[in-house]
Amino acid sequence: MNFSEVFKLSSLLCKFSPDGKYLASCVQYRLVIRDVNTLQILQLYTCLDQIQHIEWSADSLFILCAMYKRGLVQVWSLEQPEWHCRIDEGSAGLVASCWSPDGRHILNTTEFHLRITVWSLCTKSVSYIKYPKACQQGITFTRDGRYMALAERRDCKDHVSVFVCSDWQLLRHFDTETQDLAGIEWAPNGCVLAVWDTCLEYKVLLYSLDGRLLSAYCAYEWSLGVKSVAWSPSSQFLAVGSYDGKVRILNHVTWKMITEFGHPATINNPKIVVYKEAEKNPRLALGRLAFPPPRAAAGPASTTESKYEIASAPVSLQTLKPIADRANPKIGIGALAFSPDNYFLATRNDSVPNAVWIWDIQKLRLFVVLEQLSPVRFFQWDPQQPRLAICTGGGKVYLWSPAGCVSVQVPGEGDFQVLSLCWHFSGDSLALLSKDHFCLCFLETEERVGTTFGRPGDHT
Amino acid sequence: MGEWMTVTDPDLSSESKNICQYTSETKMSPSSLYSQQVLCSSIPLSKNVHSFFSAFCTEENIEQSISYLDQELTTFGFPSLYEESKGKDTKRELNIVAVLNCMNELLVLQRKNLLAQENVETQNLKLGSDMDHLQNCYAKLKEQLETSRREMIGLQERDRQLQCKNRNLHQLLKNEKDEVQKLQNIIASRATQYNHDMKRKEREYNKLKERLHQLVMNKKDKKIAMEVLNYVGRADGKRGSWRTGKTEARNEDEMYKILLNDYEYRQKQILMENAELKKVLQQMKKEMISLLSPQKQKPRERADDSTGTVISDAEEDAGELSRESMWDLSCETVREQLTNSIRKQWRILKSHVEKLDNQVSKVHLEGFNDEDVISRQDHEQETEKLELEIQQCKEMIKTQQQLLQQQLATACDDDTTSLLRDCYLLEEKERLKEEWSLFKEQKKNFEKERRSFTEAAIRLGLERKAFEEERASWLKQQFLNMTTFDHQNSENMKLFSAFSGSSDRDSLTVHSRPRQKKPHGVSNGSPVCTSKLTKSLPASPSTSDFCQTRSCASEHSSINVLNITPEETKPNPVGREGTNQKWSMASRPGSQEGCHSGRSSTCTNSHVEKDDLP
């Protein structure tokens, strides 16, 4: 595993281009485009203000930079550095900006969700979509880029509109049986739309592309409901994480629940491998025992190395007692993601913030639990293979694969607190983002990572 | 109190009756009433007697008193004090004898009365104590009754309180329920109110939004604009098209196409899955048929028609299906056929399995193979035991190895290594030392035992010798006494005597064996003696045998006597096997020596017995 040198970064804005050739990063009001392999600067664009959001177009030809404060979007072309485009939303304001899947239209959401403006880069035409709903995830495109679903609110009722992205024609418009719609998400095959209600009510609705209600699912009533939703890449399963600390897997044939994954704080089954991150005492091998221990002298915890240990059968995980009288309590399944090959599901229970649970989807049971020393901030699957990268806001990045798991210290002077990460689409490299810096981590394809530490032996 | 009295009354009456009987018995005088009077009067009388006596009789009134006494006595049924006069006028003479008799009787009576009185007094005392006891009991019971009554009252009070409480709680519950109901109503009304308000707010918000929209958008805001250097081409290279009804229709078409594709894809997948499942079913069916076919003959033989026909049906079905091979056609009939045949076969299989189960259970019920079939528990126990044994063996091997190493270490005489080993095996060594001392002690004990045994053997030998000598002298004497005595008879006698001491000799052989092994014998005479004994013993297998072979017994005995010499030096060609056996057994460890030698002696016994018979 190799690390690049550390580059400057602001607002955690660092993105690989979809074709994997470029890496865009922002430093204040400057946009830097680098070659992924050489990391040499290819282009340097200067925006009008501090960049708050960047996004690559699907064909990697353009990149948009949004400056919400000024209601501005600037678009840059990689092919023609002199080409520029500036979209000003004026007094309407701007809260969100994104590309349409064709890479020739930009969708800007104005303040107060008054409307969505669709700007075209090909023609002078501007389209408006009124009544978008302000919610967690109100806009979603199918994977093939043909259709867009948009959550709307009209006459105190939730609606979903399906647009054809090629000409922004409204294809379907239907109201949903939700109290207060919270999110929508297309299945990867683009034929089924999952709609879930606000956390006050557990309700998951599934609509066909043509607007028919396929199924409605409700696990329980009178309690906080859905917190997170994820489709499996094969569109076969819909995983619904809820505030009761369970993940329910729905199947695509009957849209009924096949199984329920509880997240107990104690793991008794000896078949389940529990990896516990443990601090390694540095310099112990040299036989020099400093007093007071060097950890205290060194100060930040991130400098001490750590390793994974396999905990024996009854393991109790650190749990957080939620504060009941506060909004957005730290309970429930806050994050869940399927591995690209459909074999695994990674989840995080917010009341057990240090643990990542990895479930075997073939056998529909818990497979591995990773317990970190500090709360898990983010995790993401390698796009090519079942390999999970985890960061906890410390100086280490953690990788898990069925062969085992490993904790890697990010080298370099000073702290490098990994707050977020993103994979290159080939799975060969990984961008690690800290507050002010980023670096690339290159993973050797020959050597499998899992062989270094904490290998359980017979898990394949 | 009254009750108690009535209870004890009969006792008293019976007592008195007893006394009555007693008195009536002593005096031959009649009625019980009278005797009771006696009894009653006797008590004060006895007390007054002395004081009365002094004043009763004086010098003057002797006559009167005598006559009075006589009168009294006669009235009480005593014989008269006077002599019976011949004539009427003559003064009756005082009969001293009668007086004395009367006195005596009176005294006896008095004593008896005293005794009775004593009895009655003790009785009275007893009854008094009984009464006291009962009174105590009564008081106690009364107390108990009181306390229990109090308790009961307390409990009743508590019960009442609890009931009261319960009632209160019920009331509270009801109140709470009412409260809950009220709150629910409030919540519901609030919720509706909230929803209503929300809707109103949202509408207002929408209105505001609308207004804002108008204000912001219709102002011809110059700022809302896009500056582009030049427009870029579409990604697909096509030009944008106008929105018309045609495009709309096209979009619809496309959408349905996508949906259709998806459904087709899914259908294909399902078909594939179905085909797989069918294949599995078919295979299962085939396997079932093959499994059940050997069974088929038996039911037919037993004229079990139903199963037989079902099987044949199934076979036909299978044949049809395989002939038609229409797996691709998922038509109803095929499916039905397949599922039906599978169902049938499954039924057969089930019945078969059930039958087997029944058989098994029957066998279990009969308890036929209960001994043969080892229960799982036993099995486990056995394995556990074996494992333990293995463990022990391993340990033993280990210790042996260690000992060997130790020995080697001492043999090679390397000081440092031995030291090292010593420090490693110090504990082990100590343990061994302990064991060694134990062994030594045991050995000592054994030696002691052996010595005592040999001593006993010697003593016995000496005794035997003396006995032999005595017998010889006796025989000689007899011989001398009866010269006409048959030679054979004398021999017979001798052998019989030898036989009668066989049990003694058994023990002798047992104890003498160790001595044979010992290089330093205790005495020179004894080995000869014992060897002779062992050899002479087999000559008498049993009395009946002996009687049958009596004619040749003399020769055998003589032969045996000839074979007195020690076995190892001059083994008997016939009994060699026997002796060999004996020695091999004797070479076993010392601890088992006793029993082994005992056994070996029996071995030799049987062996030589065989020798003798032919």
TrEMBL record, chain A:
One term under GO cellular component: MWP complex
UniProt feature coiled coil, ranges: none
Pfam families registered for this protein in UniProt: WD40
Alphabetized SMART domains for the sequence: WD40
Protein name as it appears in the record: WD repeat-containing protein WRAP73 isoform X1
Automatic annotation (TrEMBL), chain B:
Annotated keywords: Cell adhesion, Cell junction, Coiled coil, Cytoplasm, Cytoskeleton
Region (Disordered): 292-322, 506-548, 562-614
Presence of keyword Coiled coil: yes
Annotated compartments: Cell junction, Adherens junction; Cytoplasm, Cytoskeleton, Microtubule organizing center, Centrosome, Centriolar satellite
GO cellular component terms, A-Z: adherens junction; cell leading edge; centriolar satellite; ciliary basal body; protein-containing complex
Biased composition (Polar residues): 523-548
Swiss-Prot/TrEMBL GO biological process terms: cell adhesion; centrosome cycle; intraciliary transport involved in cilium assembly; regulation of cell motility; regulation of Rac protein signal transduction
Protein name: Afadin- and alpha-actinin-binding protein isoform X1
Organism annotation: Ursus maritimus (Polar bear)
Lineage, uppermost ranks: Eukaryota, Metazoa, Chordata, Craniata, Vertebrata
